[in-house]
Design a protein that fits this description.
Elements lengths: L13 E7 L8 E6 L2 E7 L5 E5 L14 E3 L2 E3 L6 E2 L5 E3 L14 E2 L1 E4 L2 E6 L35 H8 L3 H7 L7 E6 L2 E12 L2 E12 L3 E7 L3
Length: about 230
């Protein structure tokens, strides 16, 4: 993506989904490339998801390739150094002394709504907001997630602009009317609400579309009356 077109960071501050919960079993170790960095995601034996920078501070081995979970720690495949979820080295099997610099950067992680999220802030600093529980996630009246993956050449700002682009609802999604929409921003949350109607084989259907965006990394869209 041309920096002349988009003179903004590719990683705006916020929470981003890095894995679905059921794709990370106890003891799993996964190499990731997100936020333009190599990282390693693992689930401890106590069930916690942890995310660290990928490379061992000793001799640079990638912990995501051959690293193993032991208890609540990740063991390096090269010299068996162990690191806990905070990135601190806890054990060197052939030494009684742990060097002060034997530490890896740890990322803030939260697991909610069947997803594992990591906090990204290129300027530094911990999480500034939480992720809500979505009641639909554990509601038996709702179906399981249907997951799809796309690779698209775009910038996060285009995804945000789409939420307030009400004109495309009629011409792209088939609404019979140009929706009456309201948008509001409250801190990190953007809410866009649109009255919507569609023409169906059963006749005209009235409904609404509500889009809630929590920063750039998480959004939920709820349709009422439209299926």
């Amino acid at each position: 993506m041309s920096s002349e077109r988009w003179p903004f960071t590719h990683n705006p501050k916020g929470w981003y989904n890095v894995c679905f919960s059921h794709d990370l079993e106890v003891g799993d170790v996964k190499p990731l490339h997100v936020f333009e960095k190599d990282l390693v995601l693992f689930r401890t034996e106590s069930g916690e998801a942890r995310l660290l920078d990928a490379f061992c501070p000793h001799l640079g081995a990638h912990l995501g390739h051959g690293g193993k979970v032991e208890g609540d720690e990740l063991k390096c495949p090269f010299h068996a150094w162990k690191f806990d979820g905070s990135g601190q080295c806890t054990d060197i099997p052939y030494s009684d002394k742990i060097p002060p610099k034997a530490k890896i950067h740890a990322w803030d992680v939260i697991e909610r709504n069947g997803m594992v999220f990591a906090w990204c802030n290129e300027e530094g600093g911990g999480p500034e907001w939480d992720i809500p529980e979505f009641p639909e996630h554990d509601d038996p009246d709702w179906t399981e997630y249907e997951r799809r993956n796309w690779t698209i050449k775009t910038h996060n700002i285009e995804m945000a602009e789409n939420a307030v682009d009400t004109a495309h609802f009629r011409y792209l999604h088939g609404l019979r009317n140009h929706p009456d929409s309201q948008a509001e921003v409250n801190g990190h949350i953007m809410r866009v609400y649109s009255d919507a109607g569609m023409t169906t084989p059963q006749g005209n259907v009235e409904g609404s579309i509500e889009s809630l965006s929590y920063g750039f990394g998480l959004s939920v869209i709820r349709f009422t009356g439209i299926v």
